[in-house]
User: Which sequence fits this backbone?
């Protein structure tokens, strides 16, 4: 398969120096890209700023902002069979980016934020027969929110995780495939979780191919 994977955080700039972001390490997305490449898949990794070793055998496109990530993912998705959206994309960006460093002031400064594009949902609207898997990072009502995202983003499966997974080498996930029931995956190293995700994607792809032939 030709697989597109998004990973890491995005940065949304207030001026030429300052930005808002999040603590995503990118480890999960990079582990999935590595696992997919080891299985012989053609992998395009669209990555925000991270300090993780590049997976061998993958094509990496480095971006910073959500708009840049959307553009790169959209171009790569045109020739893809599947996409896995692991990136922790900033949900908001400053409405206006200053063209020079803003001076520090002793008075409060109001910052107006506007939504950034939802990459998984945007590509989900044009996916056709392609497969997509998304991640849902939730700190309350996780399953309910993840189920809503599965539908809204038009994904074939979604993985639910919590803040404790951020930056860690091990993780715990819950997995839901469209039309299926929730599976609680035991805590494991992210490399093992990544291999399990790729196997799940391969199974969905094989099932879809079988249905087309029958």
Assistant:
């Amino acid at each position: 398969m030709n697989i597109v994977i998004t990973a890491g955080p995005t940065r949304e700039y207030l001026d030429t120096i300052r930005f808002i972001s999040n603590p995503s390490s990118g480890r999960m997305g990079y582990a999935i890209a590595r696992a997919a490449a080891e299985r012989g898949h053609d992998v395009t990794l669209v990555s925000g700023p991270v300090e993780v070793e590049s997976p061998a055998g993958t094509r990496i496109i480095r971006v910073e902002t959500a708009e840049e990530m959307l553009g790169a993912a959209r171009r790569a998705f045109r020739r893809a069979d599947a996409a896995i959206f692991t990136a922790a994309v900033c949900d908001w960006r400053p409405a206006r980016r200053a063209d020079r460093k803003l001076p520090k002031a002793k008075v409060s400064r109001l910052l107006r934020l506007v939504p950034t594009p939802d990459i998984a949902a945007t590509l989900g609207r044009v996916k056709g027969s392609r497969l997509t898997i998304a991640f849902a990072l939730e700190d309350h009502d996780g399953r309910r929110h993840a189920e809503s995202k599965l539908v809204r983003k038009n994904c074939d499966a979604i993985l639910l995780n919590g803040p404790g997974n951020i930056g860690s080498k091990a993780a715990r996930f819950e997995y839901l495939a469209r039309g299926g029931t929730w599976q609680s995956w035991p805590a494991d190293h992210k490399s093992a979780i990544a291999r399990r995700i790729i196997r799940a994607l391969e199974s969905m792809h094989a099932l879809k191919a079988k249905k087309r032939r029958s």
In short: The mean pLDDT is 94. The first strand starts at residue 2 and ends at 7.
